[in-house]
Amino acid sequence: MIVINKGIPIIKRDDLIFAIKLIRKMRNPKTRFDEREFVKHGRDYLFNYAEKNVGPLDPSRRAFLKGILIGIGAAAVLSAIPVISYLNQPQITLKSFPWIIIVDSNGNPIKASEVPVNSPEILLFQYPMEGDITFLLNLGDENNNPIEVPPTTVVIPENGKTYTFPGGVGPHKSIVAYSAICQHLGCTPPEIHFYPPQYMKAGMPTPNYLPPIALQAAQQANAISVIHCDCHGSTYDPLHGAAVLTGPTVRPLPYVQLYWDPNTDYLYAIGMNLKAPPILGHTSDLSGYAYLSSYNEETGCPKMLLKAGQTPSDCYTKLENNGNTFE
Ligand code: FES
């Protein structure tokens, strides 16, 4: 079930785990999801498939699956993990990064001042393509006051190269967005999740338990909060460009460049840094498997942006230097 909190959908942990299991079954050649049958029979086929391969569906789980289907059809950007449209797609490449407005699952733009500070809830949107799930975080201190996220230089431990992270946006410059796909082996929420300052203590109960090595690395780096992956223990520092605090990952989480419009308080995702490591599994952040469901190939604009009165020329960052505007 998708819970709406102040207009922002929050996905329950159980539903996420269910969705992840479902995706794994769908991708497994032995239990492959038959898209032709899905086209023929619609959601009944999906429900039967999920019951057979993952487990019984109570009414709330059915509503969650229905929500995913609606999200795909209705161009929601901030939505559940994409399931259907991510399957069996040949790789496609974007000419440049789309400029999208970040909306909730009802299609309403999210206001920067309404993004909860330090929320351990999972707030996700997809960028630059379907399936590229991304954390939206509003960072704060231990009293939940938003804190300015400064620009910083991020080191890639894998090769020693560096790139610039431009810092936070919004009224307090505290809002950032990072890929929610772990750079080690690709675990996704809820396995990888955000630990705000109040969870940065020894002995917290699961799911907020941080191993001592992660706590120690965070203290040494003056990280006030972390993103930690329970799969194998990788830890990232969201205040400093999602730099690596503990392995086994050797690559930081790539960031999505945000733009905040102070007149409307709306947030836009406008690009990624091609000098940063690409999203795990991609050869480049401009390549992926499916356009965002909101993407209109004719105009090159997300449909929802046109609805909001924008023109197609506003839809893209002005790309220079071989498609990369960022350092
Ligand atoms: S997939 Fe995240 S630590 Fe291995």
From TrEMBL:
**Domain of life assignment:** Archaea
Mind telling me what this protein is named?
(2Fe-2S)-binding protein
Domain (Rieske): residue spans on this chain:
169-267
Q: Where are the transmembrane segments?
A: 67-87
Pfam families this protein is in? Answer: Rieske
Q: Which UniProt keywords apply?
A: 2Fe-2S, Disulfide bond, Iron, Iron-sulfur, Membrane, Metal-binding, Transmembrane, Transmembrane helix
Answer yes or no on keyword Disulfide bond. yes
Q: Which InterPro entries does the protein's record reference?
A: Rieske_2Fe-2S, Rieske_2Fe-2S_sf, Rieske_Fe-S_prot
PANTHER family (alphabetical): CYTOCHROME B-C1 COMPLEX SUBUNIT RIESKE, MITOCHONDRIAL
**Molecular function (GO) terms listed?**
2 iron, 2 sulfur cluster binding; metal ion binding
Q: Which SUPFAM superfamilies match?
A: ISP domain
